[in-house]
């Protein structure tokens, strides 16, 4: 596996290389990332793993500074999972002096995560547009845990006629249901146990829907109560349309239950697709 840091070398390496799959990451690899790399390996001739902690999608300098980084470990895991290239550009390569362009996705990027983390999805959309233009992949692989991010990226790709297919793989979870996240390493043992409340709350909402409760307010209250009992600080719980992320009052067709909350000093998100 090659480690490449500049776009010119990347494009040369990808020239006439056949079907290319791109796995966008910010590093600190876990099984969720590796499942994306393996899926790309099974379907593509060349697999590029993008490793870049994107400063423009962080709302707090401390969060950016504390984001886990271990390129040597990540490179070893990427190679073992079948990556051909680890593209790890510098900040200056992605955002050169004088960079003045921002990509925004109206509507989708302004609710839930967008409302609680102003500017977050502008940073996401801009860096994804950059990476798709740099690598020109046939397909890019994302995880379903970041459902709103996926929706934003899909809308951007559609609106800007970017010829990359977006492939979404299911959320990878630990045995107790906690969605794998690079931020999980910040949880101590006690917090790690409490963090499972996010998934337990989502499952409780799904079970209530299956039992006949279609009112979105009642479902969100049930999820919130599960988090509060575990000592988590709820940032939001919402039942939204799968495509628009607009809130729904009653669940009469497939929808997404999304949650964000704090366990100790760590902010976690999760979601679950539900259907009556």
Which properties best describe this structure?
about 280 residues, alpha/beta, six-stranded parallel sheet, three-stranded antiparallel sheet, 11 helices, about 40% helix
* Oligomerization: single chain
Rg, Å, rounded:
19 Å
Low-confidence stretches: none
- What is the number of helical segments per DSSP (H or I, 4+ residues)? 11
- Order of secondary-structure elements: EHEHEHHEHHHEHEHHHEEE
Give the N-to-C terminal Cα separation: 46 Å
Strand content: 15-25%
What is the average of the pLDDT values? Answer: 96
Binned, the helix content reads 25-40%
* Helix and strand composition category: alpha/beta
Main beta-sheet strand count, sense and barrel state: 6 strands, parallel
Instruction: Report the principal-axis shape.
Output: globular
Side-by-side strand order of the widest sheet: 1-4-3-2-5-6
Query: How many strand elements?
Result: 9
Description of the molecule:
With 276 residues, the chain is α/β, with parallel strands linked by helices. It contains 11 helices and 9 strands. It has helices at residues 7-14, 31-43, 61-66, 71-81, 91-94, 113-116, 120-135, 147-159, 189-195, 197-210, 216-229; strands at residues 2-4, 20-25, 46-51, 85-87, 139-143, 165-169, 233-241, 255-263, 266-274. The termini are far apart. The mean pLDDT is 96. The strands form 2 sheets. Strands 1-4-3-2-5-6 form a 6-stranded parallel β-sheet, sandwiched between helices. A 3-stranded antiparallel β-sheet has the order 7-8-9. A hairpin with a 2-residue loop joins strand 8 and strand 9. The radius of gyration is 19 Å and the shape is globular.
